[in-house]
Amino acid sequence: MKLLELLRILRFASVGAVAAAVHFLSVILIVETHLLMPLMANVLGFLIAFWVSYYGHRFWTFGDQTRAENFQHRRSFLRFFLTACAGFVLNECLFFVLMKYLHLSYPLALFIAVGVVAASTYLLSRRWAFKAQA
User: Fold this and answer.
1) What is the value of pTM for the model shown?
2) Where are the domains of the chain?
């Protein structure tokens, strides 16, 4: 594995960990203050964490690709948003199943759901969302 790719994976993991923590803590705060139930709070937590993730990946993880002369912000944003939404649908479904059928507490179910989905977005982000236009 090339050093640049290893560095990119570490950066992706770092940004992802921060975004996942923002997602997780936002949901906990929203639920514990009785503003929303867990599944609805998860939607809001996702939307908050999305911005952390997008800007972290755009400027740090994939910064070398986004500085390319032919990089298009609008195209990249739309692709990353679609990638994130696909991940969120998986997250919400897994979150529901873990709470409803395995009877896990919502914090544990959320922790598992966020962790499982986070790993799957790297390749889509690297190879599609933030890829410089050829």
Assistant:
1) 0.80
2) 3-129
